[in-house]
Design goal:
Radius of gyration: 15 Å
CATH architecture of the largest domain: Roll
Largest sheet: 8 strands, mixed
CATH superfamily of the largest domain: 2,3-Dihydroxybiphenyl 1,2-Dioxygenase, domain 1
Helix content: 10-25%
CATH topology of the largest domain: 2,3-Dihydroxybiphenyl 1,2-Dioxygenase, domain 1
Strand order of the largest sheet: 2-3-4-1-5-8-7-6
Oligomer: single chain
Length: 140
């Protein structure tokens, strides 16, 4: 699978509704993962919020979205991040080093609970980037 670049939109509690709407508009396959499913939130309203959602369409569009994590402020002006993902570990680590090298790392590039290697940073221009290396023998 080649690396891909796609938008990642943050919502303040309505990511599920937004992604379901986008599925109606664009068609495709929608996968929704909640904070509760990953054990990030034990009980309460936030357990059903979307930790990660992805819509992949037959036209080749990919749209990712999530509800902001519990306790983090929602800033609608900064609700979009850019996600780069795939299986090419060397290529994606090179992107990560370039983007984070003069920026600010908010999540170090390391193995995550879902099995992939993931990191998040803001580049020197203030753009948020997420790099996800699909799990495999050489991803760690």
């Amino acid at each position: 699978m080649p690396s891909r670049l796609n938008p990642y939109i943050n919502f303040d509690g309505d990511a599920r509704a937004a992604l379901e709407f986008y599925k109606e508009v664009f068609g495709g396959t929608l996968v929704l993962n909640t904070y509760g499913a990953f054990g990030e939130v034990k009980a309460g309203e936030s357990a059903d919020k979307i930790m990660h959602g992805m819509l992949e369409t037959d036209s080749g569009f990919t749209l990712m979205a999530a509800d902001i994590p519990p306790g983090m402020p929602h800033d609608p002006g900064n609700s979009i991040a850019v996600s780069v993902s795939g299986e090419d570990t060397d290529e994606l680590r090179r992107y990560w080093e370039g983007l984070s090298g003069t920026g600010t790392v908010s999540v170090p590039l390391e193995k995550q609970m879902w099995g992939d290697v993931f990191g998040m940073c803001s580049d020197r221009f203030g753009i948020t980037w997420m790099v996800n290396i699909t799990s495999g023998d050489d991803a760690a």
